[in-house]
Predict the 3D structure of the following.
Amino acid sequence: MRRPLALAGSAAAATAIGATVRRVARFRPERTPATPVDLDGLDAEAAAGRLADLIRIPTVSYRDRSEIDEAAFERFRARLVELYPAAHAALEREELGDGALLYRWRGATDEPPLVLMAHYDVVPVAGQDWSRDPFSGLIEDGVVHGRGAIDDKGTLVAILEAVEALATEGFTPRRDVYLSFGNDEEVAGVGAQLAVAAFTERGIRPWAVLDEGGAVVRGMFPGVPGQVAVVGLAEKGRLDVELTTSDPGGHASSPTRNGAPAQLARAILAIDAKPFPARLNDVVLGMVDAVGRHATGPLRGVFAHAGSLRPLLATVLSRAGREANALVRTTVAVTRLEGSSAGNVLATTARAHLNIRIALGETVESTVDRLRRVIDDPRVELRVLPGGADPSRVSRVDNEAYALVAAAANAAYPDAVVAPYLMVQASDSRHFSEICDSVYRFMPFDVTREELSALHAADERISIAALHRGAGFFRHLIRSV
């Protein structure tokens, strides 16, 4: 959905992207006073205890299924029934594949359903320096600690807290509400794809889908001091590439110049020296349009003319920090390096693993082509690994679904500016883009920069207050739709 210069693909795809560009560019949200969410009947301490209980079950995902503790995943699924009896009495539940959960809460009408998503698998903790046991579920000083506290058991618990409270009072939603809880999101598994397949087989096209993604943050946007609730409209593509170089090798006492590691190092340095260009895609332009009017100082004038200052704003954001930089360009991270298996033996093969997040308007194919041009060395073999995907489609902002999600965010956080956002990570929700044009990515938690940086890292945690308000957000949304 970017400028024509960055587009790739068919004319029909370009036309569809252009239509989305015009919708996002026209987006002018009005800040209206919101009635704060009703938190009565939602027990913050009890919710924290239930989240802690679920954190203690180590549902760690591995690409090698032989490493997975299947019994832990079974315990987790069983524990949900025990912790949320009213929800499980009111909703129909089915298991898909190896443990993805799909719940249906029948509504009073046959209108298209709302789908609320989360995943209950988590990433490993090996090699990380935690200050507390990552699976203790420790509650301390108003904070729940442990792997999955935010990503993504916190969201799952906030959803179920809302559903449990509503089911207990006998509430029936206007439209069907589905809960899609994945068991393999962290390894780009198939749980969400199975859910989409089930919807497709049953002829169901969701009204809206809400998954993890943006959050309520401060200091993310340059020049804007207050809270911003960023709702993801799309997510970047993903690609894993392996670079390999070879050499005859030999004893380390007689090294040769330009061996396999040196060839690989030059390729990596070439990529690092020539990053993908920074360009202001139109989802980020929509964010600038919504948030920039609340900036202070000279940036306010810059943001007021965002549409005509794209190159300048792309530069500003690319230099504003890691998160902002990732919004405006395809990023390449070297995550693994391999060489000789012995300290005194020259490497016959050297390898590097590149994890790449593809910007809107670019594709897997165009990304690989550029890497080959930048490396410009026939001795470096570039292999595309399975699991790559182009950027997702861009969801609508000109409809009731987005308006109600934004209204619920404003009800939960009345002082926050709600803005569209580009998710730089991948999520299960990209699969639902195949059957729904209103797929949003938003975790209704106010989190600090330090808390965000702990995702997939040591000392992941969430405040009890944020969890409580998140449950209020979901209850408000369900009541609204």
Residues 464-480 form the longest helix (17 residues). The CA atoms of residues 11 and 383 lie 29 Å apart.
